[in-house]
Amino acid sequence: MAKPGGPAVLRVDEVPDPEPASGEVVIDVAATAVNFPDLMQRRGLYPAPPGASPYLGLECSGRISVLGDSVAGWQLGDEVCALLAGGGYAERVAVPVGQLMPVPHGLSVVEAAAVPETACTVWSMVFAAHAGRLQPGERFLVHGGTGGIGCMAIQLAAGRGAQVFATAGTEAKLHRCRELGAEVAINYREEDFAERIAAETDGEGVDVILDNIGASYLSRNIGSLAIGGRLVVLGLQGGRKGELDLGTTLAKRLTVHAAGLRARPLPQKAAIVAETQQQVWPLIESGTVRPVVDRVLTLDDAVEAHRLVESSEHIGKVLMRVAG
Ligand SMILES: NC(=O)c1ccc[n+]([C@@H]2O[C@H](COP(=O)([O-])OP(=O)(O)OC[C@H]3O[C@@H](n4cnc5c(N)ncnc54)[C@H](OP(=O)(O)O)[C@@H]3O)[C@@H](O)[C@H]2O)c1
Hints:
Elements (H helix, E strand, L loop, with lengths): L23 E11 L1 H7 L16 E9 L11 E5 L8 E5 L3 E3 L13 H12 L11 E4 L5 H12 L3 E6 L2 H10 L3 E4 L5 H8 L5 E6 L6 H6 L1 E9 L12 H6 L3 E4 L7 H20 L7 E6 L3 H10 L5 E5 L3
Helix pairs in contact: 2-3, 2-8
């Protein structure tokens, strides 16, 4: 993209091949995926962190084609997927080995492009000890249950024994939330999710909320949490500044946690990637968690892919195939 703007600013262009730094490999990209933060970056609202590729793309899958200095444990030709700070919308990308994961058994190399960003984000926000700490048997609410993040969050939480509640905006999406493992799916356009949560939980509330909306849901999210509950904010689609009722937060002993993955230092990202592979890969390989792929386009269709995600017609992930 030469300048920020709507989907039409995206175009395919020739740029120099990436060179791997020490501790990095180059991946010949098989596929990449559209994430909501890509739309924000395209609009000029979410710049790449210092040192990251200026090109879009927070995840990819493919095969290792170049090994940088000091790389151990990976071979040329290995099929991998990777969490990226940028640069995934490309034929080649350089990535630190700490952000690499093997393609999970049972997935094609293209399908694997749907996994890194959502798995690492959901694991680190919902389950990790420093964030949501969701436990089996607890109640979990995820907003936007059929987005890329939402589909992963429902499956992982249900797969690990939580009782899952999800919000979505159409009947078809509510149906999909239930298929993925949500016990209760709430149409946020037609009813107040906070009233429904109170009714479904005998007024007790839920233990963890994963929220992509931010300001406009803040007071209802706080009101929907049980004693000791954790609100985990990962997106600000409903605004960034809201009023937090500290009285309720104090009385219910709540935690409000907001965080992003992309700008974290490499050691933190590598720890999240390693924990995600250890905890989530077995669930993918056993079939408990499957990537939900709305459709597979090509990199030449990037404008259409962004229009699709922007209009929120999709369920799950929109992938873009690069090679083959
Ligand atoms: N912090 C991080 O590191 C990180 C990483 C990745 C993504 N994110 C954030 O996570 C969020 C989801 O990303 P994504 O890639 O999964 O995007 P996505 O696929 O576009 O999903 C967004 C979902 O939000 C739903 N939605 C919109 N308004 C809503 C509302 N008022 N109430 C409930 N649901 C609503 C949309 O569907 P319907 O309205 O049609 O139901 C859509 O399913 C974004 O805010 C993104 O910025 C954060």
